[in-house]
């Protein structure tokens, strides 16, 4: 029998439960409701070679708790969004529409697309009532990726409003594996978020603001409070996204039911890994297979985060399923780094308003590093926070998938054998990554505690194509964005409050 891992891997003294501002989860005083399953977004048009979608950022109202509806934002939905499917190799066309009252951007977290415009960071704003068209062809492993807003310095607030949805990259290899593939039946998304509900069931981001990350006591799973799912198959494939601004999720089932992780952020794992406990940091994804063979109709299996139930799985009759996972899921081909290439050093430091990368806060018009197109390089990413009073910083790189090589010189965690785009770094730890960009452009890298990136824990790298070594990009500037937000909100720029601006001002700095 394969080894069963029963710990969370990360350093316990750094869990967010030790934060001074930690907000523990509580079970909401609300009736159980069926888990909302986001529908699949229907293409506008599809041919043998091309696929066309329209993605609309919009405001709405969502019945989350009894009583008043909550004002929310979403993509093609009132909150979160419809799940988008991107087959590898097809030429994808996306018509982006902004029906909100303020500018937003559309960041494809986990997609290997060109930066900075298609990637959708802060340099690609779509203004209210306007639209933009992007297109790309993916050449990357199958993965569960996601779309979220990324308009510096209001990324955290817009994600908090609800702008986040899954984007599933598919290919022939993953479709050929004996996995649950029936979306909504045995292939189930779980977007994990948390909120605090204020008067009349409304969210109030500014009231809840914490520069180390906004949290709320109520778990929302796919936007559902106290959800249950009716299990009608022996095995489920859960596609789990930590879509929270700050919260780490320490997941386990009742009875310590083992489950098998098959995929991380950006690809299948090399081999299945069996766990009873899984910790996810912000923006990480994990696909797991849960086998209910030892349960019978009428049983309930509960998924917990720490000691708080977050999803109930109600067992119904199901047909026996004796399919076995292959011992080898993906032949992970590590790119070969140039042996004379220096190791890139990246240092994440600080907490609260003092967060920085390499001792500097983010500047939209500053290029902090360069790397040659197609050239693999080791990155040593260090978290200088001390263990007591420190925190795990989830480190994300746009536009690429990297491999985790080591943690403080030792082997990475057993479930880090595939490609990733986000990795949790413990306080006092250096994580070595192997990074290669296959498309030119300007890309961000940052902590994915979203208030930290808004507060300046972010930098930019330009990937240089040797065929165009002097290519430059028009980069957005903060004054333009600030004036746009102020105009859209009908106030003077000096009266504008955005969380990221607050962090810079309290440090006596200009964005």
Automatic annotation (TrEMBL):
PANTHER family, sorted: BILIRUBIN OXIDASE, CUPREDOXIN SUPERFAMILY PROTEIN
Entry coiled-coil feature ranges: none
Gene3D superfamilies: Cupredoxins - blue copper proteins (2.60.40.420)
PROSITE patterns attached to this UniProt entry: MULTICOPPER_OXIDASE1, MULTICOPPER_OXIDASE2
Pfam families: Cu-oxidase_2, Cu-oxidase_3
SUPFAM superfamilies: Cupredoxins
Domain Plastocyanin-like: 58-171, 340-464
CDD domains xrefs: CuRO_2_CueO_FtsP, CuRO_3_CueO_FtsP
UniProt-recorded name of the protein: Multicopper oxidase family protein
Keywords, ordered alphabetically: Metal-binding, Oxidoreductase
Secretion signal, residue range per the UniProt entry: none
Xref: InterPro entries: Cu-oxidase-like_N (IPR011707), Cu-oxidase_C (IPR011706), Cu-oxidase_fam (IPR045087), Cu_oxidase_CS (IPR033138), Cu_oxidase_Cu_BS (IPR002355), Cupredoxin (IPR008972)
Domain of life: Bacteria
Family under the similarity heading: Belongs to the multicopper oxidase family.
């Amino acid at each position: 029998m394969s080894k069963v891992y029963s710990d969370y891997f990360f350093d316990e003294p750094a869990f967010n439960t030790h934060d001074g501002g930690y907000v523990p989860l509580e079970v909401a005083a609300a009736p159980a409701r069926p888990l909302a399953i986001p529908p699949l977004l229907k293409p506008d048009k599809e041919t043998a070679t091309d696929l066309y979608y329209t993605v609309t950022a919009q405001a709405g109202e969502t019945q989350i708790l009894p009583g008043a509806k909550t004002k929310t934002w979403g993509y093609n939905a009132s909150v979160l969004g419809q799940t988008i499917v991107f087959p590898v190799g097809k030429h994808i066309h996306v018509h982006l529409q902004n029906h909100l009252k303020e500018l937003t951007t559309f960041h494809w977290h986990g997609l290997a697309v060109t930066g900075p415009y298609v990637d959708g960071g802060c340099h690609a704003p779509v203004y209210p009532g306007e639209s933009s068209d992007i297109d790309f062809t993916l050449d990357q492993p199958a993965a569960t990726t996601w779309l979220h807003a990324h308009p510096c310095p209001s990324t955290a607030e817009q994600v908090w409003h609800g702008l986040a949805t899954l984007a599933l990259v598919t290919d022939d290899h993953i479709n050929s594996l004996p996995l649950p593939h029936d979306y909504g039946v045995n292939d189930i998304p779980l977007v994990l978020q948390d909120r605090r509900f204020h008067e009349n069931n409304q969210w109030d981001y500014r009231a809840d603001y914490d520069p180390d990350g906004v949290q709320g006591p109520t778990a929302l799973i796919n936007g559902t409070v106290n959800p249950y799912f009716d299990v009608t198959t022996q095995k489920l494939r859960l596609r789990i996204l930590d879509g929270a601004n700050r919260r780490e999720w320490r997941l386990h089932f009742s009875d310590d039911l083992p489950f098998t992780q098959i995929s991380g952020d950006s690809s299948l794992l090399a081999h299945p890994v069996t766990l009873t406990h899984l910790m996810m940091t912000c923006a990480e994804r994990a696909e797991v297979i849960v086998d209910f063979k030892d349960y019978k109709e009428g049983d309930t299996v509960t998924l917990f985060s720490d000691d708080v139930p977050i999803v109930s799985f109600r067992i119904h009759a199901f047909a026996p399923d004796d399919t076995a996972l292959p011992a080898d899921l993906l032949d992970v081909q590590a790119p070969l780094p140039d042996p004379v290439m220096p190791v890139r050093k990246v240092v994440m430091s600080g907490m609260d308003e003092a967060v920085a990368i390499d001792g500097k806060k983010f500047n939209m018009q500053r290029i902090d590093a360069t790397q040659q197109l197609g050239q693999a390089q080791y990155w040593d990413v260090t978290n200088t926070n001390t263990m007591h009073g420190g925190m795990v910083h989830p480190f994300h790189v746009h536009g690429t998938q990297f491999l985790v090589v080591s943690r403080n010189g030792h082997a990475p965690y057993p479930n880090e054998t595939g490609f990733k785009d986000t990795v949790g770094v413990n306080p006092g730890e250096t994580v070595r990554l192997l990074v290669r960009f296959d498309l030119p452009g300007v890309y961000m890298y940052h902590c994915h505690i979203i208030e930290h990136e808004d507060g300046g824990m972010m930098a930019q790298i330009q990937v240089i194509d040797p065929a165009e070594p002097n290519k430059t990009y028009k980069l957005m500037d903060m004054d333009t964005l600030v004036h746009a937000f102020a105009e859209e909100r009908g106030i003077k720029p000096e009266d504008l409050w955005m969380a990221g601006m607050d962090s810079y001002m309290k440090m006596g700095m200009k964005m």
